[in-house]
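U., I forgot to send this yesterday:
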Amino acid sequence: MKWMAVKLLRVVVPLVGIVAVGLYAATAHAGYGGYLEGEFSSSEINDHGLDRGFDAAMWGIGFMYDGNVVADKLLNYRLEVGYRVGERELDKLSDETVNGFTIDQTLGMGFFRTPILRAFAGPSVRLNFDWYSSAGDVDIVDVAIGVGPRVGLNLHLTDTLSVTGSVAYHYMYLSENLESKGLNTTVDGPQHIVGFRIGILWRAEGDVWDD
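Result:
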């Protein structure tokens, strides 16, 4: 567990710095709100003689920040931090109930912009931290990081309120630590995640089309 904590900190600390810079740089056009999430994933882990390949479905809720929801500018920075829960169906073991946190950062490019609609697409960086217990009282902690494309749409309902939705694919590197009496091992491998999010954003006064 200590090894996993150190590994997580090495990933989180640089991400926190990026988040701080992004929030500072884009305050004038910011939007804040929440989202609901659904995600579907598969993994192909087969390491140290352990077949840990799985398919999973998870559902979550989270906080959303967007540095440019409405303004007629090319770029927007979006940060999403959330909690999710779901089921993993393992190839060789019983189903497992998983809890976890996720951090997503997206640099969007508005390819279609009007006073009532903004469509954007761009690269997204994702970090997952999940935990659960398996059959035989095995405690498991996952850390996964990956990149992929995100496509989103903002619909502006009023001068201060927008609804938003997006879909994304991430190719992840997943590291899994398994610990129980007489067992402490780490396995890793690729993970593929497809997900969607819908949310509401309340906008700052500076986030207007004609700014």
